[in-house]
Design goal:
Elements (H helix, E strand, L loop, with lengths): L15 H12 L4 H14 L2 H9 L3 H7 L8 H10 L10
Helix pairs in contact: 1-2, 2-3, 3-5
Length: 94
């Protein structure tokens, strides 16, 4: 009998480079809901929402709301979240 193990994205986000590659791949999908899930995954892998709240200056409740399935963050919130994860937004030609 084979034993299954639940997949946890955070188990594979062990360095800033892996986090950046993950977020970059998600951004290529052009799916804002997927980006929120990815940021939640990264937050959990980097110490959880409490740690992100501390690093971003945003409240934990605000982060949970922002990164929820129905979240719709302002660009300033998104930048604060990315910065707290050691990331920054950039633009490149398509």
């Amino acid at each position: 009998m084979n034993k299954t193990v639940q997949y946890n994205t955070g188990d594979y986000l062990n360095s800033p480079e892996e986090v950046a590659s993950y977020i970059e791949a998600v951004l290529e999908e052009d799916d804002s809901a997927l980006l929120l899930v990815a940021l939640r995954n990264v937050a959990e892998s980097q110490g959880g929402m409490a740690m992100m709240a501390k690093n971003s200056g945003l409240s934990r409740e605000s982060l949970y709301r922002t990164l929820s399935k129905n979240g719709n963050p302002k660009i300033s919130t998104l930048i604060a979240i990315m910065k707290s994860l050691g990331l920054h937004l950039s633009v490149k030609a398509a």
